[in-house]
Amino acid sequence: AQKVTQAQTEISVVEKEDVTLDCVYETRDTTYYLFWYKQPPSGELVFLIRRNSFDEQNEISGRYSWNFQKSTSSFNFTITASQVVDSAVYFCALTLYNQGGKLIFGQGTELSVKP
Amino acid sequence: DAGVTQSPTHLIKTRGQHVTLRCSPISGHKSVSWYQQVLGQGPQFIFQYYEKEERGRGNFPDRFSARQFPNYSSELNVNALLLGDSALYLCASSLGSGAGTEAFFGQGTRLTVV
């Protein structure tokens, strides 16, 4: 069975601190995609990044960076110099190649950035 | 450009009643998916429709049904509501139905069953 685990339920940091959100996934499939979504209080899920299982290159986008390691089945997300606007719930998700658009989400990590 | 729109935004229903939730995808998107998000948990996949055909179904009872119309909008229907159906229902649209296709989410319909 496929599963996504986000062990950190809540994280609280002070503005300008760096913070890493952990994501561990389980699947026996060799072709899959991993995602990160941000959910602000308004409710909609905002797409942040997509990675396929054959691309282990780390990625940086502004203050955001992602570390994908197949050896540990992890896809961690780091925010550098956090800001109050980063406060939200962040979800890691998995989709299998043969399951179309079905996203399997983790439980989410609620990030609170205090001024 | 308009994003994914869902209606209504909030809804209160009584146990045993029926509810219909509506979703309009982004223009040009042919796939719509529905998710249920119970408070404090991640979204759970309910259905995916592409070109008016069901492409996937999650582990939900038959009380849940959906359809997609020729204009690609979609409805999610839930019969015989239970207290446990209280949740945020999210609709997502995407260009295609394949894995890895970026999904764009609406703001959801918050359903409360009393």
Q: What labels would you give this structure?
A:
heterodimer, A: 115 residues, mainly beta, 6-stranded mixed sheet, 4-stranded antiparallel sheet, B: 114 residues, 7-stranded mixed sheet, 0% helix
How would the blueprint of this fold be written?
The complex is a heterodimer of chains A (115) and B (114).
Chain A (H helix, E strand, L loop, with lengths): L2 E3 L4 E5 L4 E3 L2 E3 L5 E8 L6 E7 L6 E3 L2 E6 L4 E6 L8 E9 L7 E2 L3 E6 L1
Chain B lengths: L4 E3 L2 E4 L5 E6 L6 E7 L6 E7 L2 E5 L6 E5 L5 E5 L8 E8 L9 E2 L3 E5 L1
Parallel strand pairs in B: 2-11
Antiparallel strand pairs in B: 1-3, 3-8, 4-5, 4-9, 5-6, 7-8, 9-10, 9-11
Write up what this structure looks like.
With 115 residues, chain A is mainly beta. Chain A has no helices and 12 strands. Chain A has strands spanning 3-5, 10-14, 19-21, 24-26, 32-39, 46-52, 59-61, 64-69, 74-79, 88-96, 104-105, 109-114. In chain A, a hairpin with a 4-residue loop joins strand 8 (64-69) and strand 9 (74-79). Chain A starts with a strand and ends with a strand. The mean pLDDT of chain A is 94. Chain B is an all-beta fold. Chain B is built from no helices and 11 strands. In chain B, the strands form 2 sheets. In chain B, strands 2, 4, 5, 6, 9, 10 and 11 form a 7-stranded mixed sheet that branches. In chain B, strands 1-3-8-7 form a 4-stranded antiparallel sheet, with no helix packed on it. In chain B, strand 7 (64-68) and strand 8 (74-78) form a beta hairpin. Chain B starts with a strand and ends with a strand. The mean pLDDT of chain B is 95. Chains A and B meet through strand 5, strand 6, strand 10 and strand 11 of A and strand 4, strand 5, strand 9 and strand 10 of B.
